[in-house]
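Thread: "does anyone have the structure for this chain?"

Original post by V.I.:
We have the sequence but no experimental structure in hand. Need at least a predicted one for the grant figures.
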Amino acid sequence: MFYFVLGDLTPEQKQFLEKLFKRHNVAFYNTAKDLLHTDDDAEEAVARTFLKIIDHIERIFHIPPAKRLRYCVVIVKNESVNLLRERSKAACFSQTFAEDITLSPDPPDRTESLSEQEEAVEYLHAALSRLSEEEWWLVNYRFIQEKSYAEIAQLLNINEAAARQRGRRVLKKLRELYEKEENRNHAEHV
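Reply from O.Q.:
Generated one for you, tokens below.
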């Protein structure tokens, strides 16, 4: 399939793509692995990245070299996020995140039925899907990757106080969205 896709490229574009692959494949892989945490997912994200680069080769080929790598890293990150969303990895952190989204001050009831836990995961997944991409990344960094606010601030190029403030706002919004999902579902069943 890769050769079929490459068939439409000019010799210059093929050479450019080969150089890009040889020089940055490992960096792309490491970026994806930092986000996805598994070899298979990182490889999938890198493969999708190169397919996306091929789809937009005309634009990327003409980007100044100083900006080209940053542009491609954004593609890697976007493909990694898409993969996370497709595989619903956000729902996997619900147990870690459960105490933060619990609407009552009491700890969660450990005797909840499996269906109640599945409903909670569905509400959380629905709430997460309503976040903006920036908000989703903040949740990802903080609760999936378990990064400190200092690390998040560095990744987002903001100061630590701003990262904490954004974190509080996103968590509040996520709680509200979760509550709306829960209330909507209860209203449908009444």
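V.I.: this helps a lot. DSSP finds eleven helices and no strands in the chain.
O.Q.: and The longest helix spans residues 160-188.
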